[in-house]
Each structure stands twice: as structure tokens, then as C-alpha cells.
Write a structure and sequence with these properties.
By secondary structure, this protein is an alpha/beta fold. It folds into two domains: about 150 residues, HAD superfamily/HAD-like (Rossmann fold, 3-Layer(aba) Sandwich); about 100 residues, Hypothetical Protein, Haloacid Dehalogenase-like Hydrolase, Chain: A, domain 2 (2-Layer Sandwich). It contains nine helices and 14 strands. It has a six-stranded mixed sheet. β4 and β5 form a beta hairpin. The chain starts with 8 loop residues before the first strand and ends in a 12-residue tail after the last helix. The relative contact order is 0.18.
Amino acid sequence: MNPTNAIDLVALDLDGTLLSSNEQISARNQRAIAALLATGIRVVIVTGRGVDTPVRIARELELSRFPIICCHGALTRDLATGKTLGHIPVPLVFAKPIIEFAERERLPIAVYSEDHFWRLEGQQALMSDMNGPAWRETPSFTALLGSPPTFIRFLGAEGADAVRERFGDLPLNFRTERWFEFVECVILDRRAGKREALADLCRTYGISHERVMAIGDSRNDVPMLQWAGIGVVMGNALPEVRAMVALETATNDDDGVAEAIERYVLGGTLGDARSA
């Protein structure tokens, strides 16, 4: 592959990809991203997380000139202007009965509404990304049901199984994710996805998919990795995920993002020196 001029945009997932197991970004990964920027290559964060974490990381890595794609592709935000470029929420006609069911049955649930993320008062923060200033607690979701949510998460196997059994025939995207022993079900509009949001953004830039490199580790990354001209899966991804992507890099704890950037974009110009 022709380094440097073959790729115009690099799309990076966060959890399990750019972020290490302790949610840090290694010095080597930071250097690789800085090298991309120095050559004029755009770097875009594409994550399942809500807005707050990718905004913080984009600022730390000097990526604020580029939009972020978050909420599993349901929301694209221009950081330079604060403008929402794309938002595909869960239609309220479907979201309302699902949320009311969760509250009635006291099932652990998180409701994402663009910049704010909600859980019921007293509910445990079951995932590490359920903390931070964007999170709010509410005694009831009733007041939130005047507008459609960006996406919904059922946390834990009981809730994930219950919502699929009760509402699985609705025309929505019910995606089950497993994090070691923990299970969650993410509910999105069927039109929302990382691949779709990234493709839309690339169209605005006039960049073809052949000139995109994407790196990720989860099932929700696979369509994006298969769409990109260079799709690279992390070495820490589940075996079934790695089997669906041709190119593989090191794990998120072994600078896998930097390794992929150096190998497929920069032609190894940064070397292989490792730094935590």
C-alpha cells in the first residue's frame, strides 16, 4: 500500500481501540495521530459513547477542527461550531413504550438525549462510561418523553433479554453487546450506524471510501471496517469480530492504533519504539 498519500481520513473507535484497558491514550498512539495531522490527514473519532468523552479526547488530541461521530453513529457534531450535523434518534412512538416499560419494571436503563444522559435516581452506574458531568439523574423519565431519545441502553442480561422479548419485533436496531461477563442491549433507529455516519461525513469532504482507514474492535465497528478502503481490527477484539475483517493490528494495550497507522498510512516512519 502506498503510504501517506493513499489515505485522506482515519476513523478511530475509542473503547478497546484508541483507549487502553485503563482508558488512557498511550504516548505512541498520540505521536501517530500527531503525525497524521502533520501530513494533512483528517482524524475523526467514531464511537458508541455519548458526546462528553469524545469531545474531551478530541480536544486533548487537537482534533477539534474535525467533527465527532458518537452515540453509535446516531449523532454527528461539528466541534468547531457546536452545530449538530446529523441526528437520527429513536422515534418517540417506539421509544416511549420501551422507556415506560423499563421504568415500570425497574430495569436498569440509560436514556441518551444528545448532550445529556439520564438514569433513574439511585440507579447504579453499571458501566465506566456512565459517569461524568453530562450524566443526570431523574425520579422519572416521564418529563423526558416530549422528544425522541438519541439511543437507549438496557444494562444487564435481565433487561437486555426482557426488552428484546417484549419489543424485538419493532422496526428498530436492537444490538446486544457483551463486555466480558456484562451484557447490554443498545436500541437505535435502524438508519443509525457508524458506517452510515462516516460515509455521510466523507461525502461532505468529497472523500471516497477507498481513501479512508478505520480502526475498531467491536461488532458495531465491523460494517465501518468493511466499508473503509483499509479496515483494521484490534487484536483484542472477539474472535468472531476478527474473523470478519482482513487486517489485524496489536491490542489496545500494545499500541495497536499506532501500529496500524504506521504500517498502512505512514510507512513505518515513526518506528516501533513503545511508550506507555
